[in-house]
Amino acid sequence: MSLLVVGSVALDSVETPFGKEDEVLGGSATFFSTAASFFTPVRLVAVVGEDFPERHIDFLKARGVDLSGLVRREGKTFRWKGRYGFELNEAKTLDTQLNVFQHFVPELPPAFQSSEYVMLGNIHPDLQSKVVDQVQSPKLVAMDTMNFWITGENAALRKTLRRVDMLFVNDAEARQLAGEHNIIKAARAILSMGPKRLVIKRGEYGSLLFDGDHIFGLPAFPLTDVFDPTGAGDTFAGGFLGYVARAGKIDHPTLRQAMVAGTVMASFTVEKFSLERLRTLENREINERLATVKRLTHFEDLGDATRIV
Amino acid sequence: MSLLVVGSVALDSVETPFGKEDEVLGGSATFFSTAASFFTPVRLVAVVGEDFPERHIDFLKARGVDLSGLVRREGKTFRWKGRYGFELNEAKTLDTQLNVFQHFVPELPPAFQSSEYVMLGNIHPDLQSKVVDQVQSPKLVAMDTMNFWITGENAALRKTLRRVDMLFVNDAEARQLAGEHNIIKAARAILSMGPKRLVIKRGEYGSLLFDGDHIFGLPAFPLTDVFDPTGAGDTFAGGFLGYVARAGKIDHPTLRQAMVAGTVMASFTVEKFSLERLRTLENREINERLATVKRLTHFEDLGDATRIV
């Protein structure tokens, strides 16, 4: 089934305690579409500048990503520079140069307007809303957001939230958006803002899915070497929606499986810098980790376990 | 099967953002034995002072806890005073009065020496070792510890660790003990110190079990109202070992189920102050939550989920 992502394609400069890379391929739409492409064909809408290396275009094409919505504008490509501390939980942004991204207004090629599954990457909520205007009868529209929009564009964000089916956020964003520390209460508050489904990503602590009244909790994939968390959230969403689009249905059992797919794709991403791990990733490795997550989480029924005193 | 716990019985004064209680029933052995008593009979070894209220003795007796190892000494009962902030993740200790606990040397009544399952509560590692000296041929000896012993009595702690089968610690303690931030690496380092099994408790983020080469991850029970986290770790261990002792076996599937029992018992404890929630807890409620944890965590096989590009 058709999966569309609208977001950023960027050149990232990242520093972690384990190394440093300058101007490597990054951006929410890049990570998302690469991860999703392991499950389903993806359509990408984004903007790059004149300086965007052709080899990155070739890479995405080789992954089967439809780039007919990737426009090249006069000027430089969006650049982000960040640093992670030893705990690897949150990046400190050192520099952001929006460049051509500053005047980005997403326009869907006609062939993309019938996309059934849609991911609105982390851009201005008004632009996310403009994408919703352009899709005809999607089965599922999901979005990402961040603290910057929660504080700075709250009204616009609330408006967009009312128009989508699903939200991906991390712990801190969920708490901030809901104004509530307890994560279960925060989730319920967010579900009352519009989206019927919510994924809360908690880094090394795993993730939670709220789907109507259902809650599903999943630990993170156990990793001994976490190298660079950049793109983990976008590849989670990419694995999730890639799996959903491939299944062609959004019933609750499928969404649980999609959480597993998201967890596994994020686990690969963080093992190397940028998209490096995904470049060499094989289907076999993905399927192995999907099976490992089951061994990590399942247990036998306890039945009636108590005694009478 | 016989389950023995050695630890503290205390009077706690606790302050949380939701209320304040003075001199309520507390202590690691109290929380542990109460939780375990829902699964199996428990034997308790601890010390209290002359001022320890008889009604607390009556409560433990009513829970079927064998108190023939509870000694009453001249002086006052151990007192702990703590405060939790809004995030409810760690208590700030405001005051500790060891009182009769200062000269506590655990002595097992002869009938307790054949106990098959043993929990060494959070006391000086040398005293934990003295308990190991006194049990004849236990099937499983588990222990708890804390930052105070990890820094102040590291050599003694390492010695005790070599003599036990299992350790319960929280995230921060695991990292501190191993001198390693990555939690999987930290777990492996701890398993090389002696215990073949390790439970890492992560509060609202759930828990991890390491059993030889097996890893099992479990989210926390989803709660909208967390009132007082005091005793959560001890009731986790009590539910865990109570379940194991009831099953009478320590194979890997049983330990996974025990994680569920521990998670559920801890989830009740934190809903009210002190042991209040456990006082009114019914077997039916426990069994309901055991079933809920399965619904929270299980998913259908994904099979071969990837596509060929």
Polypeptide structure, described:
The structure is a homodimer of 309-residue chains. By secondary structure, chain A is an alpha/beta fold. The first copy, chain A, has a single domain, classed as UDP-N-acetylmuramoyl-L-alanine:D-glutamate ligase, CATH 3.40.1190. Chain A contains 11 helices and 13 strands. In chain A, the strands form 2 sheets. In chain A, strands 5-4-1-8-9-10-11-12-13 form a 9-stranded mixed beta sheet, sandwiched between helices. Chain A has a 4-stranded mixed beta sheet with strand order 3-2-6-7. In chain A, strand 8, helix 3 and strand 9 form a beta-alpha-beta unit. In chain A, 53% of the residues are buried. The mean pLDDT of chain A is 96.
Features of the shown structure:
homodimer, 309 residues, UDP-N-acetylmuramoyl-L-alanine:D-glutamate ligase, 25% strand, nine-stranded mixed sheet, alpha/beta
Strand content of chain A: 15-25%
Oligomeric state of the chains in view: homodimer
Structural classification of chain A: alpha/beta
Round the Cα radius of gyration of chain A to an integer and report it: 19 Å
Fourth-level CATH superfamily of chain A: Ribokinase
**Overall pLDDT level of chain A:** 96
Largest sheet of chain A, in brief, is: 9 strands, mixed
| Largest interface summary | A-B, 58 and 58 residues
How many structurally independent domains of chain A?
Answer: 1
User: Please, how many helices of chain A?
Assistant: 11
CATH topology of chain A, anyone? UDP-N-acetylmuramoyl-L-alanine:D-glutamate ligase
